[in-house]
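Exercise 7 asks you to align residues with tokens for two separate proteins.
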Amino acid sequence: MLKAHSLSPEEILRILKTDRRGLSEEEAKKRLKIYGKNEIEEEEESLIKVFFRQFNNPFVYILFVASGISAYIGKKEDSLIILAIIFVNSLLGFFQEFRAITSLKALKKLTEVKTKVYRDGKLKVIPASELVPGDVVYIQEGDVVPADIRLIESVGLMVDESVLTGESVPVEKNADVVLPEDTPVYNRSNVVFKGTHVVKGWAVGVVYATGRQTEFGKISEKAKEKSPETPLMRALKKFSLAWMVIIFFLLSILFLIGIYQGRDIYEVLLLIVSELVSAVPEGLPLVITFTLVIGAIALSRRKVLIRYLPATETLGSTTFICSDKTGTITEGKLKVQEFFALNEKFLNLISALCNSSDGESGDPVDLALLRWLEENDIDWKKLREEYRTVKVFPFDTKKRYMAVIVEKEGKYYLLVKGAFETLSNFSEGISEELIKVHDVLAENGLRVLFFAYAEIPEPVEDIESLKLKPAGFVGFLDPPKEGVKEAVVNARRAGIRVIMITGDNLKTAVAVAKQTEIYREGDLAVEGKDLSKYSDAELYNLLKRVSVIARALPEDKYRVVKVLQEKGEIVAVTGDGVNDVPALKVADIGVAMGSGTEAAKSVAKMVITDNNLKVIVEAVRWGRIIVRNIKRAITYLLTTSFGEITLLSSAILMKLPLPLYPTQILWINIVTDGVQDKTFPFNKEEIDVMKEKPQKPEKVFLDKRLFLRFLTGGLFIGFINLILFKHLLSVYSYEVAVTITFTSMVVNQWAVGIQTVRDYPFFYKPWRNFQMNPYIFIGIFIGLILQLLAIYVFPNYFHAVPLSLEHWFYVILTTLSVFIFIEIRKLVFTIFSER
């Protein structure tokens, strides 16, 4: 393994056969074939493994046992049908999972980390996965380090290596040092590692390890962990277990009753096994995953890229949105609106020199200052030539100022710009009039910066020990984005509180918050420094009334998120800088801006390409639609399963012949559940989901309404078909009665599927049923073809006989009864809800 830290920049460039101009495109392609992609890939299952995994299911094992029992007692047709059903079910599961895997791969590509690399001497941006050993890369503040890199050149480089070493304090890096070979990883100051974050400064370096060969790759090989289960999946498991226990207990009693009644033990055993498989929605986890994937694809079309799939299920339960101001609520395109000069010469000088922008890109404040100078015919480029920059004090998020020391003709000047509250503490001549000027600018919604200077005999390290002279104020206009006000109103209507957390002055922040309806009469606005006065319990109560937190530090944002979460709130947080990483990481939904740093995007659960609060609120709306579609699938599966259990249980208790054969029960599972539940992920929404209050993810589908729906629906289906079966036995032979009941149960469940598409009654704007989810009708058409084949082409295999038109009358009658019953129930629910 190459000991890059023990080599000088010249030595490592020679060993890697490259130079400071970087590799050629042709050479990079050759090396990519040799070394592979710069990815720590998860082990990818082959399609054959995915297919055979469909059989790794306790219910499939039960079916294999049932097939064996059938073969043992001489019912070979039943045995073959059960095996065929196992195969068809597994095939359906395979195709659905294959589609989900393919979609997820496409979504991952959209959120891939980008990096700057020198190729053929030109700096270009490429996906980090295409880096190879020998590539020369450029990294700067906000970047995620894309590979293990030996630094060639560095300026003020500070890197957060906590993900690798656990050290929370950023580490200073220096390209010029050469270290002993046995230097431990955490002391390698001339090397940066894949997955770490650049906090300050910039550097150029050469890639010496990629993918699994990186330090991060070695660790990931040793500690492979599965992602934690989401609240919804945990709740689903808990619910499924409880449902299985109830069903198993009920079916065990029915088995004993059946044996006591003198029924054939093998027939009863097969029936119970078949009903157990039908009653438990074993395919539900896959349906949920598929629903989340379809939802993530829909969100990607709306400028929301999901990096962590389970975040889609959590979106709809959001109760708090903690949003940045600049670039999310406001345009982030600053323009100098007003200024107040006490010393115009130094005001212009500070604007030009205490400035990190190149006139084309950079911090929005710095860029706006240079444009303002240009508009006033001041040549800032000439000023930069006249004055030599001796020392730069980069913008400090805690102190809230930036400073430079410049020299001209042997004289040194300290030039500073930043927050008035900070700089006024070590400035002279701060009068009441000056304070009033600042407050008026801020109350007009302008972002205000204070400019100050000092003539000094020589460069200094501690500028706060000096007394600065005021040069004046500059007020920047950053207008609210279009649609933000409406988004805030929608969020409030949906029971979501929006808190604006900003580094701006309190007066400016409140002015912007008022314009966007975030701040209303009776709300509170506080400064970040005041949060430390409150205990966690007190802070939570305060946050229920706070809508603006100004002059906030990264640790303030982090604490706000943690306090809200500890009280059970679901928190979405926006951020775009390295300082936002801690809050984005711990948030239930960390939302990074598409224009933000790679560091922020790498820890966020979703990325929005249009930096606008309205996009986040729209994502919440889609999150609720996704969860409702999962809820529809659960309602449908439990209703149909409970209907079958009700029919069989009642028949056994009434000592009637069995109304369905085991193979028929399994077939019903194929032509109803197996086809229809896969269509619910595509359901559209007609009810305004943003009128509802958020529900906790784990309780989102365990409400009274869902319970009433599947209980009443299942009981009605079971009893209407029991009455039908009892009547048919008095009119037709047992074979005909069973076939009609068998077909009735199939068609009845299609009616349940159609009615589950909407919350409103079917006959209220009936055309909406076809617009909401056309796929469900395609599923019914496929099921109809299969059912007709079962009773007209292969009746012997299903213990069936071909049905006449007269027989179909009974099927239509029960289906209409089920349909009308659900329609009346929906009408009652609708009236009750509106009241």
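Second protein for Exercise 7:
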Amino acid sequence: MPTRALNAFAAAVHRLRRWHGMSLADLAEKTTYSASYLSKILHGERRLAPALVSEIDDILDAGGELIQLAREQDSGDRPRSRPMQLPAAPADFVGRASILHELDAALVSDARPGAPITAVIEGGFWTGKTALALHWVARIEQRFPGGCLFADLRGLAPGSALTPDEVLDGFLHALDAGPDAMRGTLAERAAHYRSLLAQRPAVVVLDNIASYDQVADLLPGAGSVVVLTSRERQSSLLLRTGGVHITLPPLTAHEALTLLRMRAGHARIDVERDAAIRIAARCGHLPMAILIAAERIQQHPREALQTLAERLDSDTRRLDVFTSSDPAVNVHAVIDLSYLALAPRTRRVFRLAGIIPASLISADAVAVQCGLPATTALDALDELRHAHLVDDAPDHSDQVQINDLLRSYATGRAIVDDPLSEIEHAHDRLLRWYAATAWRAAHALAPGWADPVLECPSPVNPPFTTGDYEAALAWCDKEAHTIIDIARHARSHNAKDAAWILPTLLQPYFQLTDTWTTWLTAAAEGLAAARDLETDLGIGRCTQSLGWALHHAGHTDHALDHLRQAADLQASSGDRAGLAWSEFATATAYSSAGHHVEARTAYEHAAQLFDQTEFPLGAAIARALLAATHEALGNNDRARAYANDALACVLTIAPRHPAAALAHHQLGIVLSAQQQPRAALTHFDAALTIHRHSHQPRCHAETLEARGNALLALGLVDAARASYRDAMELWQNLHDRRGYELHARMATLSPPDGEARAIGASSPDGADIRPTVGP
């Protein structure tokens, strides 16, 4: 049912009631009339009685305003025009449901005494700020007797931005203010404008504003709604007006595909869905870019979508699709507005940051790329955020993201505005910094793993100290995907060994975190680069890395093929450090396949090579897993000897390293097999203490499950169940079937009456074990 427009008198009563916090029933109680009768009067179904009007004016402290409005309304004076300046809302509007709900909620609850309801919509180019404003206002404008006023202030357009005087004169004319009202000073005309809107509240849309100063005299008073859009952050405006603040992001991937389907045709998009998804992604999921791409698809009905997708994949040809003689749909002209408003230093940071070949980049990387101090780079990035030329990363890390269109624009600007030598130096600085930092991270995660042949000096120090495990792990978490992008770009720009060394240096990180999907990508990229360079060292290391990743992905046969190839190449080229890891990875693949004899031989060879290459941590890890292999073969005494040897070794090198947790875990397993569950618990608890900080959920779950087995052997069923439950949650988070198997096992546990507490048994955090409630 359509919403009925209120007359000026009714709108004023509604506004004043809300100001005083009074409902219609509250107002009726203070008069001699019923709420039903008041409702009919306010909806124009009854004439306005002078006595009632005077009574309501006094109750609401209107100061005669209601009496004057009633007199004008009752006298049959010519009604003033109800301006409707709102341009047509977009025909195809997709998504934004949560934002529209937020705006609707503000309309109901955000009224403040003396202030209009204010909504500020910010965002980068082509995100659909104006379309959102038009779509929402078109839904609500019938509620406002003063209609709708609209002005495009062209805030960033050099030399063509509208002044408050120009806009205000247009608004007063639309409101039938009369010639006298338009002769005063700006302040006098603004006061008259607000007085008119106080009588007949309206929706005011101020599009493309530059600053608070540009719109201060255009803001209405209480009762009206003002919607403002801007390319830049309007901190000063929000500080003064409050209201709803919306930073409009691009569409989601699903919404972008829906819009493309609506404009380019459902059948055509559905037939080439993968190409359509690529097109939407390369458009940055920006509504206007999607519409331009859809228009091109319609204009070329016989051209496959794959052709457009490939064109948009090209950094050098991408922007051609969005180039037009119409400035509103010409990507160069649109981005120029924001870019040219920047300070020169910030423009340079944008150009050089934009040529970093990754969608997510850190402030440290930007500082290195631009050759600037970190604080200076941070300041420039803040200015770019203000202009919405970069956005914060989706995970709210300290990285920023730049969409493909902006990166292509920045690259084009850099080619024109910066000497080629400076661009090359920037690439070189960044590549060497990433290689040096990745080497330090690898050394921190696996001390001694990163041998000197992989080291690359950098003119800028890495952002964490040598040996800082936590910082190295956090850096790899943040930068792994960017490193792969950097390495891929380095390969195409003839950066030689760095193209395969960079992804290879992530191997300890991948091994510790079990992120095998990213590992597969990194290893494949590194191997392709090494083969291009025809380097036996690189081919061997990258083939080994790919084989290890395939093993973690569950492709054991393919993994063993790659690992044998790597081992043969490394043996012939004399790369003993690489051969040690190939043998170690081969052993783990054999072990997981149940070939324990072959695993034992490979582990023994790996341990021997680690000793020869002076990598004691590797030797300790190999011996810890040899303990597990001998335990599987039934050689309990040898298993215990290897486990003790591994633990003693690793405790002298890195007692808080995950390798120490592995050694404690394996010794606990051996002790459990030798029917010494109480002694095993001590080592499981020590392993768990390390696991809480090592970010290895799979190893953590294995130790919790083994600890539960030891507790069960002691008759502590409830305590075992608690340990199993923690393990089960980790397995399920990893989508590992062992979580469901453990859940089924827990269901069969039933504690005996009067279960005793084991003396000396402890929980992972060192507290005495208490029987707990089962799941």
